[in-house]
Amino acid sequence: MSTFYQAQVSQEQLKQAQDQSQREIRAQAAHITAWVEVDTHNGVNSLHVMNRSLDPASYVVAYFDVIIESPNKTVYQPALAEILTTPPCSEMVLQQHEIQVDVIGDEYRNLVEDRESLRKASGIYLTELQFVDRNGRYWSRTSEALKEIPPPAVWYFPPQYIQVKGQFPHISRSLQCTDDNAPG
């Protein structure tokens, strides 16, 4: 009987050690988030990327849809913004009217009647944030999950995506910066 209880205790200790290891692996990734915020006064959307950890994250790419409304149709055009590095304890903000895009691939240049209207987004919708943590682990964050992903063989952006040009113009210090021992 004591062997049975000893085995149960050993299994529970192993499970706790595995859970702790998993928390340590996810520590920084749990502190990196992104969201779209709508200003109810003027209806302008802004994309926020926040790094609440004490370390930078690298190879950060935000995938989102640019919503382009015209009298004839509404287009949800996939887009991406390469942020490359988020500084520690920072919040980066890109407002929809600051989005300047360039279509990748000639076959997608005629998605809307007027190419200049791509610069006149009527909204944005975040789909995914990918980044690399301080330990070189690749992560994907969506509205549903944070998961580790395999590193890409090469950095490849699908040709149907439009790419945001320039940098995030608004970077501020996050007041919510925490160490890795805090819950994410």
Outline the fold blueprint.
Layout: H1 2-26, E1 32-38, E2 45-51, E3 57-69, E4 74-86, E5 90-95, E6 101-103, E7 123-132, E8 138-141, E9 146-149, E10 162-164, E11 170-173
Parallel strand pairs: 4-10
Antiparallel strand pairs: 1-2, 2-5, 3-4, 3-7, 5-11, 6-10, 7-8, 8-9
Characterization of the model:
- The structure is a single chain.
- The protein is mainly beta.
- The chain contains one helix and eleven strands.
- It has one helix at residues 2-26; strands spanning 32-38, 45-51, 57-69, 74-86, 90-95, 101-103, 123-132, 138-141, 146-149, 162-164, 170-173.
- Strands 6-10-4-3-7-8-9 form a seven-stranded mixed β-sheet, with no helix packed on it. Strands 1-2-5-11 form a four-stranded antiparallel β-sheet, with no helix packed on it.
- Strand 1 and strand 2 (45-51) form a beta hairpin.
- The longest helix is centred in the first third of the chain and has 25 residues, at 2-26.
- Residues 104-109 have low confidence and may be disordered.
Strand order of the largest sheet: 6-10-4-3-7-8-9
Distance between the termini: 41 Å
Residue share in helix: 10-25%
Percent strand: 35-45%
Main pleated-sheet profile = 7 strands, mixed
Brief rundown of the structure:
The chain has one helix at 2-26, and strands at 32-38, 45-51, 57-69, 74-86, 90-95, 101-103, 123-132, 138-141, 146-149, 162-164, 170-173.
Keywords for this entry:
single chain; 184 residues; mainly beta; 7-stranded mixed sheet; 4-stranded antiparallel sheet; 1 helix; 11 strands; elongated
